Structures are given as structure tokens and as C-alpha cells.
Amino acid sequence: MVDDKNNDNIDIFIVEDDFTLADEIKISLEKYGYKSERSSNLENITEEALLLNPKLILMDVNLPFRDGFQWCSEIRRFLKVPIIFISSRNTDMDIIMSINMGGDDYIIKPFSIQVLIAKVQALFRRAYSYNNSSSPSIKSLREVTLNMADNTVMYHGNIIELSKNEFKIMNILMSKAGTVVSRDEIMDILWSTDEFIGENTLTVNINRLRSRLKSIGVENFIKTKKGQGYIIDEY
Which intervals hold domain Response regulatory (predicted)? Predict the structure, then answer.
């Protein structure tokens, strides 16, 4: 049984375009205590994975929009959770590709549910027995995801890398979503190094960050509260 200490997250994310098989896997996993969800949008698997923040992913290789190897490579930029590929493709090249793209195991269809469960249990033991921190910290709000590991922002599959100051501004505003953060508070956070951050410099950084967000389709995310500071609404 899995000790699910964080009820906000799921244990296993199932990415499989055969929904009948996916539901069968989900039911079997839940019998063993694994809180599971199957993908409901095969066009935006990375975004769904980030929202669910699973502890393990079961990834089919043959998917309708991009194959599982490509999704794995993209997900690996944000999450370091174990990924098990499941596929009817059984050549050595497919298995080698799965390893090269960041997969942790490979199960060939058709497979026994008992074999799947055994592999899942083994990966959970290896990944979480000695380390409870399963993935780099991420913040997600209104489909905008901030990755703490590499200072990137993703929105609808578009990714930009932020500067040090842009990242700090996004981090504090997303951490306090729904609350106005004063300019003084932001400047105190930015001025944690020897670099001087004044009123004009902060304004330039905020405007540049807004422009960068707009370039990936995020508009009106950071709002100005005149005489108070800045806010990102929760909804």
C-alpha cells in the first residue's frame, strides 16, 4: 500500500489512448492503494501531468498527437518522477529509445496486471524509500507553470526561460497569489545581492516580465494596484 502523505497529488498518472485499458489499469492500481488518474487530454499531456503532479507515470508509446518518447522528454524538463513505458512495440531499438528519453522501465503489451503492479511497486521502493522529495518544486496557477529547477515558465506548451530577477518576481507573486505584494517587498527580495534595485529598475523588470509572458500567450497575468503594488489573481 502507498502511504499517500499528500492528498493533493496523485500517485500514478496513466497516459494511454485505449481508454478501456487505461480504466482497467486504474481500477487495478487503486485496488493496491494507488491513487490514479488517466489522461483526459492527449493533446496536452505535459500540462496535465504538471497539474496532477504524480509520483509515477505510466506512458504509452503509440499516442495520437506525439509519441510517448517525445512527451517523456518534455515532461522530464519539469518532473523527475519515474516513468514506465507500456507499448506493443518490442524491438531492442524501442527499449533503447525509452531509456535514452528518460524512461525507467518498459512493459510490452499484452502484459499481466500482476507484472505491472510488481514493476510499479519496485519503482516506488527505489524512488521513495530513501528520499521523500520526488520532483523539483513547481508552482502552477491558471495554467501558468513556474519551474523552480530551471527558472522556466510554461503555458499551453510554450516555454520561456526567465532571468534571475524575472524569476524572483514571478515566484513571490505566484506564492502570494490573491494578495497584493508591495513594491518595497519585491525590491527587498530582488536586492538580496550586491545589485542595486531601485524604483525605476523594478518597473523595467516588471514590464519586461509582462512582455516575456505575453510572448507565450499569457496576458494580464500580473496586475498593478496603484499605490499598493502588484498582484496575480488566483482565478
Answer: 11-124
